[in-house]
Amino acid sequence: xxxxxxxxxxxxxxxxxxxxxxxxxxxxxxxxxxxxxxxxxxxxxxxxxxxxxxxxxxxxxxxxxxxxxxxxxxxxxxxxxxxxxxxxxxxxxxxxxxxxxxxxxxxxxxx
Amino acid sequence: xxxxxxxxxxxxxxxxxxxxxxxxxxxxxxxxxxxxxxxxxxxxxxxxxxxxxxxxxxxxxxxxxxxxxxxxxxxxxxxxxxxxxxxxxxxxxxxxxxxxxxxxxxxxxxxxxx
Lengths: 111, 114
Prior knowledge:
The complex is a heterodimer.
Chain A: E1 4-6, E2 11-14, E3 19-25, E4 34-38, E5 44-49, E6 55-57, E7 60-65, E8 70-75, E9 84-90, E10 100-101, E11 105-110
Chain B: E1 5-7, E2 10-13, E3 19-24, E4 31-37, E5 44-50, E6 53-57, E7 65-68, E8 75-79, E9 88-95, E10 104-105, E11 109-113
Parallel strand pairs in B: 2-11
Antiparallel strand pairs in B: 1-3, 3-8, 4-5, 4-9, 5-6, 7-8, 9-10, 9-11
């Protein structure tokens, strides 16, 4: 099983749609979870951290299921500017600094 | 908002030459990182650096690579004898501490080896 696995997409959705991305991770010792966003040929930018109870930031909702080692990101009311690649990022444990990135899920929002 | 800055934005180098990529982390950050992303592939960890020494490195970070914090602001990645497969985007990142603080990334240096 890959350390961090994502559906590569692309997801093509109309403006205003709701879209959900999934991510699974292999290391049960992982304690921190993040969603980053990456535009084409740009740096990853933190979108949100994922907390145990799930968390919401405007149109974005992240959820964590530790038992299934599964993380999700929900985007409501998609905007054209949401078009990007969404990266699931998981440090393997609290004893390491390195981030393990998924391959990313590409989202294309069309008018 | 403070940023991680990287120079140059694009570096073109002949195979076998040495290259130094530069980064200025956010000023109150103590942990520093290099990652790379080969075109079309995922972001990969190279090395982490704290208290003037390497704290962790990946298998990619072999003897051709080195990092240095020569003064209080810069953090550099040196590739001693570049290979074609070193062509990638190189991202520097920093964070203030390890208490669930996220890593903040610079906008990268595109390295092209000819």
